[in-house]
Design goal:
- By secondary structure, the protein is α+β, with helices and mostly antiparallel strands.
- It is built from 28 helices and 28 strands.
- Strand 24 and strand 25 form a beta hairpin.
- Helix 3 packs across helix 4, helix 14 runs antiparallel to helix 15 and helix 18 runs antiparallel to helix 19.
- It is globular, with a radius of gyration of 28 Å.
- The mean pLDDT is 96.
C-alpha cells in the first residue's frame, strides 16, 4: 500500500509538466464468467492509449497503474521493457517529447474489495456482475492513467464482454461486432470514469425540459440493479426524484446538465453510499428495499440521489485541483442535496433530518483529534481517503447553509452560476469560488473563509438569563466557548427562541430574536422585557453550526416536558443538544436514557425517532456506568415492548419500535416473543414480518444463545440471496462462543478470502456489547496486528479492520493505556493508520468520562 501512495507535491509537479489530450481505453472482460475451473479468472486485459503533451521536452515523469503484470509498454512508438519501467504502481516515462502517445497493455485484477473493478457472483443464480469504483485513486487498478483530479481529459471506452451481457459507461454505448463502444466523454477526471457490466435488470425513462430559448433538453434516463432485486426495484420513485432534481437544478443553476444520458446503477457490495460518475451514477444496492422501511429510508435515498446529481455541476463539471479542496464538491453536494430535497420533493422536513442526523456526524468528527479545517491539508492519497468525513460533508454543508443566509440566496446562486460558466470542465481552488461570491454579494469573503473554512473545531453557545423582580427578562446573553485545542470564536448569525407553556401544557415559542454573535459574550437586546421563558433555545431554526447548551431552567423544563415542544425542528434540536451534552459528560447517560423512555414514544418525526433509538443504545453501551447497564438495558427493552404494542398497527412507528425491541431484547420473555413472531405462533396486529424483519428478530436470538447455526442455515435456505448471505455471515460471527470469535478473527485478520461486504458483516457480528468477556483477549491481539494489516491489505479493507476491531468494548484505563503505548511506540506508522487509532482512542476516552459522569450522578442521587 505505501508504494501506491501519491503525494500532493508529486501531483503538482506532474500537473505543471503534463497536459492530457485524451484516453482510449479497451477492456476485455470476457474472463469474468470463469473458465469452468473455479470462480473465474482473476485478471482481465486492459489496453490504454494516452495522448498527452509535455511542457519540458526531454523530462521524465510517470503514469499510474496497479496491476499484477504488464505485457507491453510503448512510448512514442518505442517499445519499453515492462520489467524496467513498471514497479507495480508506476510506469516511468523518460525523455518525453512535446507531444506524446503512451500505450500500455496490462493484465489488471478483478477486485473483491470494492476498489477498482469489483467482481460479484450472485449466490442466488450464479450470475456475475461487475462495476467500477475509483474515488479517490483506484481507476489505476483498471487502466493506466495520470491519477489526479486536475489532469482532466476526454475518454473513449470500448469493452468486450461475455455474450448476453450489457455494458454501461459514462457515454452512450453501442454494441457492434461483439464490442461495446462508448461516445467520447467531456473532459473529466480519472476517478469519475465508470464501467458497469453484467446481466443487470435495466429500465428506462426520459427527462424533457423546455430551455426557454426555443430548444428542448431531453435526457435519457436509466436505472439498473441485479436481476435478483428486480421484484423490489421501485424505479418509478427513483425516476420521480431524478426528474424533480433535474428540474430544480436547471431552474437554479442556469446551466443545462452537460453529460448526455443519466443512468443510475444500484450495485452489490458497494463501499460507499453512492458515486457521482457523470452519466452513470453508482449506488449501494441497499437503497433497493427488500422489506418494509420507514419514510426516513425513502428520504435518505432521495437525498443521496440529489446529492450525486448536484455533483454533476459541483465536482464533475468543475473539479477541485487537489483533494485539499474536496469540500468544493462534497460540502456543496451535501448542502444542495438537502436544499433540493426540501425544495423539489415530497420530503419537506429534510432540514429536520439534516439538523438531527447530518450535524450529529459533523459534531462528532469536529471534536476528534483528527478534526481539520473544511479546507484541509491533504498531503497524499491516504489523507484524501480518510477525509471523506463528517467535516468535509456535514460540517461543510452546515457552513454553506450559513453562507446562504450571510450573502443571501440570490447572491449565492448567482455566484454558483458564474462559477460554472467561468470554470466549466476545469479545476479550481478555494479562491476561485470566493471571488465570484464577492462579486455577487458585495461582501468580503476572506474574513468569513478564515473563520469558517480555515479553522477547526466547534463552538458552544450557552444562554444566560437574568430576570427582573417582576419576572421578566432583564438581560439575555449568549456565551460562546471553544475547546482549548481549537480556540477560535467565530461569528454566528443565530435565532434565539423563547418558549413557555401554553394552555394545555404545550411548549410553544412566543418570542424570537436574531442576533450576530461575536466574541465570548453577546447580549440579545431584543429580548429585554420579554416574559420569563421556560425554555431558551439557542440556534432556533438551525441557522448556524454550533453546539447548543441550556441554562438550568431550560434543562429542567426539558427533563420534565421535552415531548411537549410542538415544533418538530425545535424538538429535534433539543434532542441533538442533549445528546451532545451526554457525549461531553455534561448530562449523565441515565438521564438521557430516561428522556428517551418518557418522550420518544411521542416523537412524530420517524427519522428523529430512529436516531433516538440509536443514541439510546449508544448511551447505554458507551456512556452509562457499567453497574447500571443491566438495569438500563431492561428499561429500554420494556419501553420498546410497550411502545411497540401502543403504536398504530401497520405504521412506520410500529416498524421502528419492532426493530428497536429486537435490538434491546434481553429477558427470557423477549426471546419467547421474538421466537413466536418468527415461527408464526404469535403475531402483532399490523406488523408484517417480512424477510428483512425475520433476520432482525433472529439476530438477538443468536447473540444470546437461543438460536444456533442450524437455525441460521434454515433461514439462509429461505433467503438464499446476496442479502441473506450477508445477514447469515453477520449472525454466525455473533454467536456467544470463544471458538466462533476465534474463527471470525482469523477470517478477517489472517485471510483475504472474504469480500469487502462479508468483512464488514463479520466485524459487525464479532463486536457485541453483551459479549465483552469473550472479546477481552482480542485487545492485545489487535495492537499486535494492525500495522501488518495496514501494510498488507488494501486501504479500504484495512480501514474496516483497524476501525471495526478496535477494542472499544473493553472500556477501561488499561485499554486506554495500551492504545497510548501503541501510539508512542509507532510514531513512524502511516499517518492515516495513526489517525484511525487516535480517533478510536478519543471515543474510548470520551466514553470513560461519560461513565464517570453517570456514576457520580448516581452517587449524588443516593446521598
Amino acid at each position: 500500500m505505501p508504494g501506491e501512495n501519491l503525494s500532493r507535491d508529486e501531483a503538482r509537479e506532474r500537473a505543471a509538466l503534463l497536459s492530457v489530450d485524451g484516453y482510449d481505453v479497451s477492456l476485455d472482460l470476457r474472463s469474468a464468467v470463469g473458465d469452468g475451473a473455479g470462480d473465474g479468472a482473476r485478471t482481465f486485459r486492459s489496453v490504454t492509449t494516452i495522448r498527452f503533451r509535455c511542457a519540458e521536452p526531454g523530462a521524465t515523469s510517470f503514469a499510474d497503474l496497479i496491476a499484477p503484470s504488464v505485457t507491453a509498454v510503448s512510448l512514442n512508438g518505442r517499445d519499453l521493457d515492462p520489467g524496467e519501467v513498471f514497479d507495480g504502481s508506476r510506469i516511468v516515462l523518460e525523455d518525453l517529447a512535446a507531444d506524446n502517445e503512451l500505450v500500455v497493455d496490462a493484465q489488471c485484477a478483478y477486485s473483491r474489495t470494492g476498489e477498482g473493478l469489483h467482481r460479484f457472483v450472485d449466490p442466488e443464480d450464479g450470475e456475475v456482475y461487475l462495476y467500477t469504483q475509483y474515488e479517490p485513486a483506484d481507476s489505476r487498478r483498471v487502466f493506466a492513467n495520470f491519477e489526479q483530479p486536475d489532469l482532466k481529459a476526454p475518454f473513449r471506452f470500448e469493452v468486450r464482454a461475455p455474450e448476453g451481457w450489457t455494458v454501461w459507461s459514462n457515454g452512450v454505448g453501442e454494441l457492434t461486432d461483439g464490442v461495446w463502444r462508448f461516445a467520447e466523454t467531456k473532459p473529466i477526471s480519472t476517478y469519475i470514469t465508470c464501467v458497469v457490466a453484467g446481466p443487470y435488470h435495466y429500465v428506462t425513462d426520459t427527462y424533457s425540459r423546455d430551455l426557454g430559448d426555443g430548444t428542448t433538453l431531453e435526457i435519457p434516463l436509466g436505472a439498473l440493479c441485479r436481476k435478483g432485486l428486480a421484484p423490489y426495484f421501485d424505479s418509478d420513485d427513483v425516476f420521480l426524484v431524478t426528474k424533480q432534481g433535474l428540474d430544480f437544478f436547471h431552474e437554479h443553476f442556469d446551466c443545462p446538465y452537460p453529460f448526455g444520458k443519466y443512468d443510475q446503477a444500484f450495485v452489490p457490495e458497494y463501499n460507499l453510499g453512492a458515486m457521482e460518475n457523470p452519466g452513470l451514477v453508482t449506488f449501494r444496492e441497499e437503497f433497493i428495499f427488500r422489506g418494509k422501511v420507514t419514510q426516513a429510508s425513502y428520504e435518505g435515498r432521495a437525498n443521496v440521489i440529489l446529492h450525486e446529481m448536484a455533483h454533476m455541476w459541483f465536482g464533475d463539471l468543475v473539479t477541485m485541483e487537489w483533494w485539499d479542496d474536496l469540500w468544493l464538491k462534497e460540502s456543496f453536494a451535501d448542502f444542495m442535496g438537502a436544499f433540493a430535497l426540501v425544495g423539489a420533493t415530497r420530503f419537506k422536513d429534510g432540514w429536520i433530518t439534516f439538523a438531527n442526523r447530518r450535524k450529529a456526524w459533523a459534531y462528532r468528527a469536529d471534536q476528534l483529534p483528527s478534526t481539520h479545517p473544511i479546507t484541509a491539508d491533504i498531503r497524499d492519497l491516504q489523507d484524501a481517503k480518510l477525509n471523506f468525513d463528517g467535516i468535509t460533508y456535514a460540517k461543510g454543508a452546515s457552513v454553506l447553509k450559513q453562507l446562504v443566509a450571510y450573502v443571501g440566496q440570490d447572491a449565492f446562486l448567482e455566484g454558483a452560476r458564474r462559477y460554472f460558466k467561468r470554470h466549466a470542465y476545469g479545476n479550481t481552488r478555494l479562491g476561485d469560488l470566493l471571488s465570484v461570491l464577492e462579486e455577487t454579494s458585495g461582501r468580503d469573503m476572506g474574513v468569513w473563509a478564515r473563520s469558517w473554512l480555515q479553522t477547526a473545531g466547534v463552538n458552544a453557545l450557552t444562554p444566560q438569563v437574568l430576570l427582573s423582580p417582576e419576572g421578566r427578562v432583564d438581560e439575555l446573553a449568549l456565551v460562546q466557548e471553544a475547546a482549548e485545542s481549537h480556540p477560535e470564536l467565530r461569528p454566528h448569525r443565530v435565532a434565539v427562541g423563547l418558549y413557555r407553556r401554553a394552555d394545555g401544557g404545550a411548549l410553544e415559542r412566543y418570542a424570537r430574536a436574531e442576533v450576530d454573535v461575536e466574541g465570548p459574550r453577546t447580549v440579545v437586546a431584543e429580548s429585554a422585557g420579554a416574559e420569563a421563558p421556560d425554555l431558551v433555545l439557542v440556534n432556533d431554526d438551525d441557522l448556524t453550526y454550533c453546539k447548543i447548551r441550556f441554562d438550568a431552567t431550560s434543562l429542567e423544563t426539558l427533563k420534565g416536558g421535552l415531548g411537549d415542544i410542538t415544533d418538530p425542528l425545535a424538538r429535534a434540536l433539543c434532542w441533538s443538544a442533549l445528546w451532545n451534552m451526554t457525549r461531553d459528560a455534561l448530562l449523565p447517560a441515565r438521564d438521557f436514557v430516561d428522556l428517551v423512555l418518557r418522550f420518544a414514544g411521542r416523537e412524530s418525526q420517524i427519522g428523529v425517532l430512529q436516531m433516538l433509538h440509536a443514541w439510546a443504545e449508544s448511551a447505554l453501551v458507551n456512556y452509562a456506568a457499567p453497574e447500571w447497564r443491566e438495569r438500563g438495558g431492561a428499561l429500554l427493552s420494556e419501553c420498546a415492548e410497550r411502545e411497540l404494542f401502543r403504536a398504530e398497527p401497520g405504521s412506520e412507528h410500529q416498524l421502528a419500535w419492532a426493530r428497536f425491541y429486537a435490538r434491546t431484547a434481553e429477558a427470557p420473555g423477549d426471546f419467547e416473543t421474538l421466537r413466536g413472531l418468527l415461527d408464526g405462533t404469535s403475531a402483532i396486529e399490523g406488523l408484517e414480518v417480512d424477510q428483512e424483519l425475520r433476520w432482525a428478530f433472529l439476530e438477538p436470538l443468536v447473540v444470546h444463545g437461543f438460536a444456533d447455526e442450524k437455525a441460521l442455515d434454515a433461514e439462509l435456505a429461505r433467503d438464499d440471496t446476496a442479502s441473506g448471505k450477508r445477514h447469515q455471515v453477520r449472525c454466525l460471527a455473533a454467536r456467544p462462543s470463544a471458538a466462533v470469535k476465534a474463527q471470525a478473527w482469523a477470517q478477517v485478520v489472517e485471510s483475504d478470502a472474504l469480500s469487502n461486504a462479508l468483512v464488514e458483516a463479520t466485524i459487525a457480528g464479532f463486536d457485541r456489547p453483551s459479549q465483552r468477556e469473550l472479546l477481552a483477549p482480542y485487545a492485545e491481539k489487535y495492537f499486535a496486528v494492525i500495522e501488518r494489516v495496514w501494510s498488507e491489505r488494501s486501504i479500504q479493507i484495512a480501514m474496516h479492520i483497524v476501525s471495526g476491531l478496535f477494542p472499544s468494548l473493553q472500556q477501561s484505563q488499561e485499554t486506554l493505556d495500551a492504545t497510548d503505548a501503541w501510539l508512542a511506540a509507532h510514531e513512524d506508522a502511516a499517518p492515516a493508520l495513526r489517525r484511525l487509532v487516535l480517533e478510536a482512542r478519543d471515543d474510548l476516552a470520551r466514553g470513560l468520562r461519560g461513565q464517570a459522569c453517570d456514576a457520580r450522578a448516581a452517587g449524588e442521587a443516593s446521598l
